[in-house]
Known about the structure:
The chain is mostly helical.
Amino acid sequence: MTKTLTPDGLMVLSVLAVAALCTLLWIFARARRHGGVAEVPSWLMFGWDGAAWSPGVIVINRDARNKPALLAHERCHQAQQRRDGLLRFWWRYLTRRQARLAYEVEAYRVWLDVSPGDRWRVLHILGNSYGFGLTTAQAEALLESAG
Ligand SMILES: [Zn+2]
């Protein structure tokens, strides 16, 4: 049995593709109008609070709790992208756990420089997000180790 795309299915896929493209263009335009930072509704963030797409574009959840620290964290990722090259950064970030961990530890140190009071929240995020599977003690040891 083969599955074929019906004209209705093709129409639905086309509409979804156009919607996704329009959303991307809207985010880029929004970032351009607001100094490189696009604040978007949380449902568009799929559970994330922020992301540095490139050295010129940061996307953050408009309902994020600590925007100054979040922005400092994302600007650190932008500095990493400039330092390592955008494609190399994303390749390492998406394919290598150790590289992703090193990038995040560096960026969460910056978060804590801005907001030392967020220490427990940061330990929780580092330990439980990004697929690291760290204990709180392991996350703390990484943050404390010499960068
Ligand atoms: Zn990060």
